[in-house]
């Protein structure tokens, strides 16, 4: 399943790992008291061999990730560190290798693995969800991660419908493909509706001025131009990107299904972000990319209903990306302009939260992309695959004719088993 709670009745690791959890569950307080680094330096070097299940490994990765982000950014961008101590770096590296994830906080950690229901039998909504571990930002950091989680939840019907589309294309079943595409477009609209909750649960000045630095990485970041040494792993520093919406597998799946072709630089960044996803997510995206072209099937069938269903998916995905641009403008672009204005006036007062924001990230996302130009280019390339109805489709839908499908034959391989 796309979203599955990691833990059944517990949010703890085996008792041996309590030194990790004692710190991970108090990262925010330790950052504010400027004592997180000293606590981590005193932490014992623990062996990862007692982490027996996938869920324990994911919780361990989450705990080690928030400790790492706090350790690096405790004093802001002007007092970063060059080395992650071995008692944190070695187990973090080993857990990351087990999971196929990088040793940095990812979308898969902060969002997909960082929630539980307050009432296990209650609804999956904002009021009944809470974080397992948190970072500075108070209610806004909870809101940011939980709203993002609800966007993922809204996408579940679409992800479940993708194998139906692929099998329908392989079998030449236009009716099945049409119904599945309608389900996908409806889910995309639900994702946009969920994203709108960001305005209600996250304060832009808190996101920009406090939260954002703790999601930042040490690649393409002028605050840490050399990267970070993971002590006990290798002597040379390593570079990893911070958290990014591009690390969610959802839009990658939609792009591969619909046939969105991204501009070279944008495409290279998106492809690199797949290295920050769980292995099963990467495999699913790859499997979708290897299937016969949906867009080619729609063109060949020339069915009005099928073309409309495909076009509606393109429209809804474009709308989702446009709304994301709106969110980024409110939560990054506008606060960044305010921060620059304060600096130009010689006002670095802590009274305005945005003035605490790192200057290194003003023009980029936490993942390292030039954020607005990137998002607009990706949105425009999505719009480029639009397929307006033509006369052939109108005529064919009217007379009911259906030519024999020779290009798309039944294919035994399907994606049902490759769940998120």
UniProtKB/TrEMBL annotation:
- Polar residues: compositionally biased ranges: 342-352, 394-420
Pfam families, per this entry? IDO (PF01231)
Source species, domain of life? Eukaryota
Task: Establish whether keyword Iron is in the entry.
Answer: yes
Which molecular function terms from Gene Ontology are attached?
heme binding; indoleamine 2,3-dioxygenase activity; L-tryptophan 2,3-dioxygenase activity; metal ion binding
| Keyword terms of this UniProt record | Dioxygenase, Heme, Immunity, Iron, Metal-binding, Oxidoreductase, Tryptophan catabolism
Region (Disordered) location: 341-420
* Entries under InterPro entries matching the protein: Indolamine_dOase (IPR000898), Trp/Indoleamine_2_3_dOase-like (IPR037217)
Gene3D superfamilies with a match to the protein in the record: 1.20.58.480
GO cellular component terms, semicolon-separated: cytoplasm
Where is heme b annotated to bind?
324
Name one process (GO BP) from the record.
immune system process
- Family as reported in the entry's similarity comment: Belongs to the indoleamine 2,3-dioxygenase family.
Q: What is this protein called?
A: Indoleamine 2,3-dioxygenase 1
The record lists the organism as Hucho hucho
What does UniProt list as this organism's lineage?
A: Eukaryota, Metazoa, Chordata, Craniata, Vertebrata
């Amino acid at each position: 399943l796309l979203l599955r709670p990691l833990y059944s009745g517990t949010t703890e690791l085996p008792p041996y790992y309590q030194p990790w959890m004692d710190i991970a569950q108090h990262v925010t307080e330790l950052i504010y008291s400027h004592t997180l680094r000293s606590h981590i330096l005193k932490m014992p070097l623990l062996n990862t061999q007692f982490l027996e299940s996938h869920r324990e490994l994911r919780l361990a990765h989450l705990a080690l990730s928030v400790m790492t982000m706090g350790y690096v950014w405790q004093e802001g961008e002007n007092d970063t560190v060059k080395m992650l101590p071995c008692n944190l770096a070695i187990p973090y590296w080993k857990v990351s290798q087990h999971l196929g994830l990088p040793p940095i906080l990812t979308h898969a950690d902060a969002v997909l693995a960082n929630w539980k229901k307050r009432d296990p039998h209650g609804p999956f909504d904002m009021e009944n969800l809470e974080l397992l571990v948190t970072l500075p930002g108070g209610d806004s950091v909870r809101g940011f991660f939980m709203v993002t989680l609800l966007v993922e939840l809204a996408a579940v019907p679409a992800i479940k419908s993708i194998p139906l589309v692929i099998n329908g294309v392989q079998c030449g079943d236009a009716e099945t493909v049409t119904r599945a595409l309608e389900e996908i477009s409806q889910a995309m609209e639900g994702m946009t509706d969920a994203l709108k909750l960001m305005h209600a649960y996250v304060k832009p000045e808190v996101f920009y001025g406090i939260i954002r630095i703790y999601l930042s990485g040490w690649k393409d970041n002028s605050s840490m131009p050399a990267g970070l040494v993971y002590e006990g792993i290798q002597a040379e520093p390593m570079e990893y990107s911070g958290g990014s919406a591009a690390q969610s597998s959802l839009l990658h799946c939609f792009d591969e299904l619909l046939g969105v072709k991204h501009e070279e630089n944008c495409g290279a960044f998106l492809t690199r972000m797949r290295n920050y996803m769980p292995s099963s997510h990467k495999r699913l995206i790859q499997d979708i990319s290897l299937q016969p072209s949906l867009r080619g099937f729609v063109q060949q069938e020339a069915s009005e209903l099928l073309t409309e269903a495909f076009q509606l998916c393109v429209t809804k995905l474009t709308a989702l990306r446009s709304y994301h641009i709106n969110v980024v403008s409110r939560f990054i672009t506008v606060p960044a302009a305010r921060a620059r204005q304060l600096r130009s006036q010689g006002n670095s007062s802590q009274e305005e939260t945005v003035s605490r924001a790192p200057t290194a990230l003003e023009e980029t996302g936490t993942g390292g992309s030039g954020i607005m130009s990137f998002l607009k280019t990706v949105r425009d390339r999505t719009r480029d695959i639009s397929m307006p109805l033509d006369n052939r489709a109108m005529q064919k839908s009217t007379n009911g004719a259906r030519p024999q499908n020779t290009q798309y034959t039944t294919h035994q391989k399907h994606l049902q088993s490759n769940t998120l």
